[in-house]
Amino acid sequence: MGGQKFEYDESGSTFFYFVLSFLALILVPATFYYWPRKKKEDPAKRAELCQCPPCVKKQLVLEQSQPYKGLKNFLVKLAIISGWVLLGFLAYKVSQFDYEMSNFDPYEILGLPPGSTQAEIKKSYRKQSLILHPDKETGDEKAFMRLTKAYQALTDDEARRNWEKYGNPDGPGAMSFGIALPSWIVEKENSVWVLGLYGLVFMVALPTIVGMWWYRSIRYSGEQVLLDTSQMYFYFCHKTPSMPLKRALMILAASCEFDRRHNSEIVERITDNEEVPMLLRELPNLGEKNKEQPLCRPYSIKARALLHAHLSRMRLPSEALEADRRYIVAKCPDLVLEMVNCVNQLIALAYARRIPRLPSIETIENCMKMSPMIVQGLWEYKSPLLQLPYITEDHLKYSANRKKHVKSLLQLAQLRSEERRQFLKFLNDKQYEDVMKVLGNMPYIHFQINTEVIDDENSTVVTAGAIVTVTVTLQRTNMKELFGDTTIKETEIKEDNGEEDGDKVENGKNEKEKKETFKRPVWMKQQKKQAPSKKTKKSAAAKQQVKLATAAAEEKEKEKEKEKEKEKEKEKEKKTKDKEVKKKDDEGSDSEAGSDDDSASNSEASEDEERDKSSAQDDEDDDQWEKFQRKIQKRERLEGRSKSSHPVHCPYFPLDKQEYWWCYICDRKSRTLLTAPAHVTALLGSLEVQLRFTAPRWPGLYTLACCLRSDSYIGMDQQQELKLDVQEACAVPAAHPQWDLSDSDDAHNDQGDNESEFTTDDEVEDE
């Protein structure tokens, strides 16, 4: 290591290397992530969007909410382009350094061809030295040094040998390691400034940034809700176990996110002293005289009034109140989710006997109801048809006097096109088209449940105290598949193509059976059949042809099956006759007959064993496949939940919204929640949700309810009954004498148990 020496970068070449590599590490990811891009809108998706006035107004408000977006994008582009220009300049400088160090050619420096004579070399050196000498006006010290070095390499014998052998007239140079910092950093005159900059960055700026981040993070929960707000939710939900919807709205409006002391984004104006009391006079049953803290604070009353005005779709008197309404409403879905989680945790604490009172199922359901109400800007008791554009309460009052009563979105979707157009005849063609776009894109959920006891000998039998796993299968489709005109089009196509073959009919039946594996819920009743009109005579004839074709195909199959059965019976009769003949022929040779029977029995036994082995292998493969699927599901849960779903039509909600759902199991008779509500955020097509709970301790037949609630639409909730036949658990083996348990402890545990067990159907009948 004697030939090595460490030195600071005097010429600046290694510093350029450092800056070049550091800048490239920053520019490449910054360009990829921060370069402003315009989203290319699909014309087909753009055509499916609603063009009603509230939706158009919402898009304008969203665009105007970011006034400095253009300037920000320009500055980002300018910074990235400047960085790439600097990177190119540094790359050019580094390439010049590399060329000078690795390409030392004395002939090229002197401007002579290889093999020139000594006279030509001296002549060229004198000519260029007169120009490049430092004492001259056109002199260049570095160029003159290179010129002198090239002249020595060609005139001096030793320098020439070194150049030919090592590429350098000075011979093999010592290995030097340069520190990629300029030498002025360590000079005594600049030490105070360097030390000050170091202290400012690492002792002031960095701790300040980390402290601000830490102070902000400890104030918020996992759902980005203030911990003070969560604490308030816990207090009020514990104080009122049976919380009505009106009180839940009051507690939601009292969230700390709407208080200036907790949230610096809140704007308090002098005009609120006049505008808010005027708004309170127009809103009845607001409960502004409540004396509970913080429900009686001014910020809470203002937020409550704006929420009531939003749910009533009231036009506010000033633009300032409208801006406050948009801010408050945009915060509400996350706050509602946090409130649901708080009630769920209180129920878990009540089951663990840490709090005396158990919140009822109505409390958590009323909290869930607030989310679709706020997203759609509609009270729960209003008609779900008001979620569609252009439809008002006056239109519904007019339609209520008609014979055709349509009270839900599902009933409207199931009408035939002529009846639907007649029902919405107060709309023009453009408005009717927008209504059908919105209605067709609304969710239609196929809801199916399956109950089992995993890791048990018999997974279909539920015993007392067992852990029951309910697999909820959700399949999301658009409501446009329920439109009555689609069925008419399908039958007309079948009639035109002349599909009367038995095979095609069977394939169609199989496809229908696959589609109908998901049963329609109770609330999705089919429309009553009506007498066929004149316009649908062709479709009725096509249906009759299809039925005839299916009947003929079924008769052919039955005939084939009968023929196969007759052939099997004939084969059996032949075998029995052959056996009787063999017995008569072999009466004298009993030993031989015995050996034949043994071989036959052995062959049959071997066949049975092979079948058992194959079936066992199939079962093992199925078990391994199920375990593999469970591992994949666990891995997906650990990686995090996706929040990409279908967009929601919500013109009165200030932000874009995605469809989310809550799925849970409850007992309506005891008014208790059995499983934590699963928040489904990625229902794009089909999805499976697993819910687990402990079966009751006493045998009997229990009727539970599996519920699915939407956080975006009113009237989309579903519920299915879950019959749970709980049988008595198997006897526990006798305990070892050393494991003797006192009866007093068991009795004490039974008396102190605060769990709300299920009620059986027999108990309800006795009551």
TrEMBL record:
Principal location listed in the UniProt entry: endoplasmic reticulum
SMART domains referenced in this protein's UniProt entry, alphabetically: DnaJ, Sec63
Subcellular location as annotated: Endoplasmic reticulum membrane
Basic residues composition-biased segments: 526-540
Basic and acidic residues bias (residue ranges): 504-519, 553-586
Bilayer topology annotation: Multi-pass membrane protein
Biased composition (Acidic residues): 587-610, 752-767
Transmembrane segments: 15-35, 74-92, 192-215
Keywords: Chaperone, Endoplasmic reticulum, Membrane, Protein transport, Transmembrane, Transmembrane helix, Transport
Highest taxon of source: Eukaryota
Protein name in the entry: J domain-containing protein
The organism of origin for this protein: Plutella xylostella (Diamondback moth)
